[in-house]
Every structure is written in C-alpha cells, then in structure tokens.
Amino acid sequence: MNRRELMGGVMGLAASATTAADAPDASPLITRRIPSTGEAIPVIGLGTSGPFEVGAEPGARAPLKAVVDAFFAGGGRLVDTSPMYSTAERVLGELLSPAQQEACFMATKVWADGAGAGAAQVADSARLLKHAPLDLVQVHNLRDLDAHLKTLRALKAQGRLRYIGITHYTVSAHDDLARVIERERPDFVQLNYSAVTRDAERRLLPLAADRGVAVIVNRAFEDGRLFARLKNVPLPAWAADFDATSWAQVLLKYVIAHPAVTCVIPATGKVRNQLDNLAGGRGRLPDAMALAGIAAAVGA
C-alpha cells in the first residue's frame, strides 16, 4: 500500500472532514526562528532526493513543476537538495520561477573530497540552482568536514552563502553530529528523526537548542515505510485535537512538536502529497499525551 491508498482509506473513515488533499489551505504555516540570526522560516520544507532526480522530458518535469507551484503557493520556503541527488539541482534551477527563486530559502550541500573540489562544487551548485547567494550549504554526511567548514566560512564571509550546516541521515552518526555541534557550532544541523526513530530526543535535539543551532529533519516518514506500517490503522479520533486529518500530518506534527526542530523536509513528486504535507505545518500541535499516543500507534 502506498501513501495515496493509505490516504484514501483514512478519508473513507473520516469522509466528513475537510483535508489538505481537497484544496490548498490559505491559513499560514507555523514558523520557527533560526537561532543564529532570528530569521523565521516555515516548519514544512521540500526535499528533493528521489522525486526530483529526473531528466529533461516534459512528462517527468510537469508533475514536479506542479509540486513546486503548490509548495510556494502554500507558503513553503525551504527547499533542500544536494549534488549527490543526480539531476535535482539542475531540475530545481530550471523549474523555479523568478518569484519562487526570490521566496526560496535554498539549502544545498557540499559532497566532495578536498577543499578545491568542494569550492568548485558549491560554485557549480549556485550556477545550476540559479540562486546566489545560496542560503544554506551543508557538509553532506560530514564528508571531509574540516576542509569544507573552512571553505564555507570563507564563502560566508564573502557573502556567497548565508548559513553553514552539517548533515547525516543515520542514528549511528548522531554522536559525530553532537561532537561537531559542540566544537564548531554551525548554523544548522540536519538529522533523521521520526515517531519511531526518536534517538535524537536523547541528546542531539537538546544540544542543538542549547547551542543555538537550527534543526532540519529528514526521514520523518522513514522513507515511506511508516505508511505501510499504518495501512490497517484507522486515524484516531484524537488526531482532530491537533488539527490532523491524515497520517502524514500526524507524523509531521510529531516531529515539529519538538521545539528544537526548525523545519522538516519530506520529499514528494505528487501535488496531493505536497498539499497534505503543508497541512501538517498548520494549526495546533500535539501535546505530551498526544505524542505518546502517536508513538504507540506507530509501534515505537
């Protein structure tokens, strides 16, 4: 069962509810402030790994253009990509309109060995994305960290990027991320966190809050596996207490309910899913009792 089928089942159980899949919602997205500057960004971002790795064929690009349009029309800003994601940077640069480029908080990564290769890669990313200065450049999976941090700090001083970050996507790297936060205090850290993978709650999220580091969350849906897990689980009535009308919204609201989380970046190539994701960043958030209920419902 995929996400569309799961959503259809949920809607059948709650047919009287108005959902984000029905129409765009004009209510504002929740925002969080970047600790190092105070700049506010919406809590729902857009990831590009997978869906945006396509060629130039109009049939492949058209659905992504619709996703991008829905994202910005719904108040989204932060788009996360990487040179590692094959064609994603080029696709984004060619899909975004001038107005969308102006609104976009463009986050990409450096994923290379050596300072020279890293600097060249950052310059190439700015060219492909047609976005300068880049808003955020992150050292992808901590690859050649020390060399790239030095480069990124120089580029930031030159006005060629605004924020510096670090990333990883596995629990096994959390201790490494923590050590870098303590030693280097980057503007951003990107990490994996979900209702079933809660290890970040133990140390990383409190540490980021204490050190004033913004947090971007990846893998909130566990690469889609949570939708398969929930296929026979009706949406609980108490989800309405925090304005959630789908499991995707429940899962996103679990993540952003943590006050240290700045933004979560689910990737999608479908407008229906994009609207649903955006709805997860609106309205009330779950309290402690609801968070425990979510964790129990997903089998955490």
Describe what is shown at a glance.
By secondary structure, the protein is of the alpha/beta class.
Walk me through the structure:
The protein is an alpha/beta fold. It has a single domain, classed as TIM Barrel (Alpha-Beta Barrel), CATH 3.20.20.100. Helices cover 41% and strands 14% of the residues. It contains 12 helices and 10 strands. The strands form 2 sheets. Strands 3-4-5-6-7-8-9-10 form an 8-stranded parallel β-sheet. It has a two-stranded antiparallel sheet with strand order 1-2. Helix 7 (174-184) runs parallel beside helix 8 (204-211).
- Which fold does the CATH topology refer to? TIM Barrel
- Largest sheet, strands/sense/barrel: 8 strands, parallel
- Give the CA-CA distance, first to last residue: 20 Å
Q: What's the domain count?
A: 1
Query: What is the second-level CATH architecture?
Result: Alpha-Beta Barrel
Strand order of the largest sheet: 3-4-5-6-7-8-9-10
SSE order, as H and E?
Answer: HEEEHEHHEHEHEHEHEHHEHH
What is the topology?
Blueprint: H1 3-13, E1 31-33, E2 40-42, E3 46-47, H2 58-73, E4 78-80, H3 88-95, H4 98-103, E5 105-110, H5 115-129, E6 134-139, H6 145-157, E7 161-167, H7 174-184, E8 188-192, H8 204-211, E9 214-218, H9 225-229, H10 247-256, E10 263-264, H11 271-279, H12 288-297
Parallel strand pairs: 3-4, 4-5, 5-6, 6-7, 7-8, 8-9, 9-10
Antiparallel strand pairs: 1-2
Helix pairs in contact: 2-11, 3-5, 7-8
